[in-house]
Design goal:
By secondary structure, this protein is an alpha+beta fold. It is built from 2 helices and 8 strands. The strands form 2 sheets. A 5-stranded mixed sheet has the order 2-1-6-7-8, covered by helices on one side. A hairpin with a 2-residue loop joins strand 7 and strand 8.
Length: 141
């Protein structure tokens, strides 16, 4: 999974792969967001394409049933999705897991951006256990 890491942050011991930004525990959400590379927003745009191209000229058309999701900082396209797709911002994902870990007695240990920012991951732990799940619909481990 290390090859999928774009940016991450952790507290405590360094992860097995040695990647990420280390900082002290009990940091506020904005520190986690910056250090984990999650301090950007997902923006969206209509899908446009060129048809009947002759050289650089052609007619531009929209595809109204889809939208393109892209990063606000790099403008890198993340995915093309249905107009019905509900975007969840990186900040909101991180805030949800910070709230859940606090309520359940866990502590957020790692957070980061995977696979060209198409997925987020986090790891939570307590004194006797660890939990690692992707924040998406695919299992990573």
């Amino acid at each position: 999974m290390a090859h999928l890491i774009e940016q991450m942050a952790y507290v405590g011991s360094a992860p097995w792969h040695g990647l990420g930004n280390h900082f002290s525990p009990q940091q506020p959400l904005d520190v986690w967001q910056k250090e984990a590379g999650m301090n950007w927003e997902i923006q969206e745009s209509e899908v446009w394409f060129m048809a009947n191209a002759i050289g650089n000229l052609g007619t531009i058309h929209s595809y109204p049933d889809q939208k393109v999701l892209y990063r606000s900082d790099t403008k890198e396209a993340l995915s093309v999705v249905s107009k019905r797709y509900q975007v969840v911002q990186p900040h909101d994902v991180l805030e949800l897991y910070c709230d859940l870990t606090e309520a359940s007695g866990y502590e957020l240990e790692t957070a980061g951006v995977l696979t060209r920012a198409a997925q987020f991951a986090r790891s939570c732990g307590c004194n006797h256990c660890h939990l690692l799940k992707p924040l998406g619909n695919r299992e990573l481990c």
